[in-house]
Amino acid sequence: MEEPLGEINLAVQKATLQARGNSIKKRMKRDPARPSAKWVAPARVGREEGKALAVVLSTIGCAHARSDSGGCTMCSYLLDGVHEQPTAEQIVAQFQTALKEIETAAPPISIKIYTSGSFFDDEEIPPEARTQILRLISRDERIREVIIESRPEYVSESILSTLRAVLADRNIEIGMGLESADDTIRAVCINKAFNLNTFKEALRTAKKYNVGIRAYVLLKPPFLTERDALLDAISTIEEARKMGVTTISLNPVNVQKETLVEKLWIKGNYRPPWLWSVIEVLRRGTSTSDKWMKIVCDPVAGGKPRGAHNCGKCDSDIMEAIRRFSLKQDPTAIQNLSCDCINQWEHVLKHEDFSLVVHR
Ligand code: SF4
Ligand SMILES: [Zn+2]
Fold it and tell me: Based on the structure, what is the number of domains in the chain?
C-alpha cells in the first residue's frame, strides 16, 4: 500500500490490537464438542421460502484476528471461540448436535456453517472434519442449500472440487466478507487484510465449480460519515453484481465488545448506521440493474443503541420491513415507510462532514 495510506493502515492495526487487549485470554471455557451457537429461522432458500439452520462451530477462531494484524475493526467473533483447538471428532460432534435442530423440519432447508473464521482454513477445520461434515449433509435430501464462510485466501481448487463432489447438485454459496469494493476503505477503515484481486480470484475459482458467492457488504465502517458509508455500500453492491456475486448480505455495523469500533463508540466518535441508510442501500441495490441477485439483510442489534437504529419510535416497523424484504425479496416491503426522524437523517447526510460532529 502506498504511503501515507500504509502508515495509516499500520496505525489502525495498532489501535485494533490495543482495543482487543487481552480479551482473547479471557475467552469463555466451552465444551469442545458443542457448537458456540445454533438456531433455526425462516429463510429464503433459492427462490423458495424454507428454513435455515445456522451453526457456529467452536474453533480457535479467525487466523487474521489471532495474528499481530489484530483482525477487523468491528469484529469480536474471536470471543466465540476456544483457546485450544478441538479435535476433528469434536468438531464433527458439534455439527451433529446442531443437526438435531432440524430433525423434523420440512424441506427446503438451508445450512449455514460459520466458524467465527474460515471453514476452509485447515488450522480451524481439519480436512477430515470438513469432509465428514459435508458427508453428513449429503445424506439429507431435505438440505437444498449450503452456505459456508471463508476468507478468500483459503478458497482453493482442491477444496472446491471435494465440496462439489460430496454435495452433488445442491446450491452452494461461499460467504466472503468483501465489505467494500474500495481497497482503501477495506484496508484503512476495516483492516481486512486482503485486496479486491484476492476476492476476484476466489470468485473465479468458485465459478469453475458452479459455487456461488455470497458477498458480505459492510454498512458504515468507522471513519466514514453516514453519507460516505451509504455511497460506498451502494457502489460495492453494484461492483459485486458486475463481478457475478450471487447474493449480497448487507451487514450494518453493530458495536461488538473489545473492538476498535466499540472504543470509538464509547468516546462518542462513532454511531452505527441509521436504519434509513439500510433502507436506502436496499432500495438502490435492488434498482440498479435487472440482473437478478439476491439481497438479504438482518441487522444484528437492529433498533438498539449498539446496532443500526433510528429514533426509537419507528425502529421495530423498519426492522420488520427489512425482514419481510429479505424473506420475500419483495421491494414493495421497503416502500412507503415514514417517520419524523427521516428529516434528522437527511440533515446528517447533508451536514455531518462539515460539522465534524458524530450525530448520535
Ligand atoms: S470479520 Fe471475518 S476476517 Fe475479519 S476478524 Fe472477523 S472473522 Fe476474521
Ligand atoms: Zn423514527
Answer: 1
Tens digits of residue pLDDT in 16-61? 999 988 777 777 778 899 999 999 999 888 778 899 999 999 999 9
pLDDT-derived band at 290 (thresholds 50, 70, 90) equals low
Distance 327 CA to ligand 1 centre (A): 26
Query: Which ligand 1 atom lies nearest to the CA of residue 63?
Result: 8
Instruction: Kindly give the distance from the C-alpha atom of residue 190 to the centroid of ligand 1, in angstroms, as a whole number.
Output: 10
Q: How far apart, in Å, are the Cα atoms of 265 and each of 60, 260, 305, 347?
A: 27, 9, 10, 21
**Grid cell listed for 274:** 441509521
In a domain, 226, yes or no: yes
Query: From the CA of 264, how far away is ligand 1's center (Å)?
Result: 19
pLDDT at 358: 59
Give me the pLDDT at residue 335, please.
94
Separation between Cα atoms, residue 60 and residue 73, nearest integer Å: 19
Between the alpha carbon of residue 326 and those of residues 33, 63, 245, 248, 282, the distances in Å are 33, 31, 17, 11, 10
Please identify, by atom number, the ligand 1 atom nearest to the C-alpha of residue 64: 8
Question: Is residue 279 in a domain?
Answer: yes
CATH number at residue 30: 3.20.20.70
Provide the domain limits for residue 114: 5-355
The one-letter amino acid at 35: P
C-beta separation of 73 from 259 below 8 A: yes
Calpha distance 241→252 (Å, rounded): 19
Q: Tell me, what's the pLDDT at 289?
A: 57
Atom of ligand 1 nearest to the CA of 191: 4
> Residue 360: inside a domain, yes or no?
no
pTM: 0.93
Cα torsion 132, 139, 149, 95 to 10°: value is -60
Q: CB within 5 A of ion ligand 2: which residues?
A: 310-311, 313-314, 339, 341
In angstroms, the CA 29 to CA 324 distance is 37
